# Entry
Amino acid sequence: MNPKSTAPRWQPYLLLALANLFWAGNWVVGRALRDAFGPVTLNFSRWAIAAVVLLPFALPQLAGKGALLRRNAGLLAALVITGVVLFQSLVYLGLRSTTAVNAVLLNCTLPLFMLVCSWVLERERATMGQVAGMLISFAGVAVILVRGELGDLLRLRFYPGDALILLAMPMWGIYSVLLKRWPRELWGTGFMLVLALAGMPPLLLGAAFEVAGAAPIHATPAALAGVLYVGLFASVGAFICWNRGVVAVGANAAGFSLPLLPAFGTVLAIVFLGEQLRPFHWVGFGTILLGVFVATRPGARRS
# Structure
């Protein structure tokens, strides 16, 4: 897919929604595998799988791109460190010592961090429509997280892993803002392969430290299936969808699709964990979708 081609206005938002769906599954799998793999080992495994899958399709795109990569080595390093190495490693590490509710709630601060990063790095201001959409979506997320009992919001407990989850948020904000600076001459699967290959050495070093520290590895068939999911969908599929969506609509507008992640997470919990769909789910979903619409409609994105 050519990022310069004309596409329907809804297409970037569909890609952003798919990215959030794939990442919702990643949070579920990451929590499930917290005792099976070390966080950096799990992150290394997902990108190793991604590199193997991408290699036969993306390698031809790298022919003659050596000069481009050298000119943008600093930008590439920043994208790899923030989006590939630090963000997901911090998330997997945080999920070892916090509840899923707390982690998803903190993940919903991403639009705020993306607004701040856009202002710091690009001097891009948020519009009133974007701020209003963010607040509406946060209200919908809160309804789902507290199961319709708003008094429970005041009784949320915080755990050591919350600080790690919160620290991961600006990493993704920086990645998304810097992504707009990457030259379009190398994009799509070729760019993803570069990210995966460049991120593997530091992740391999971190995984080696985990193994040396006797971090437990329990490679059961279910655990391996989980690793395969995060490698194929949470890495390859989600990142391609997210990258194209960010380039098409900008980091600010893309950030307002992120409240869909806990919404999709709720659906996955209903399907795979047998939880019931209750009225507060409908209220929360409707409010989140309203917020996304308010933030991403054409008038909301005008400065």
Observations:
- The two ends are 29 Å apart (CA to CA).
- Residues 10-301 form one domain.
- The chain has a mean pLDDT of 83.
- The longest helix spans residues 221-249.
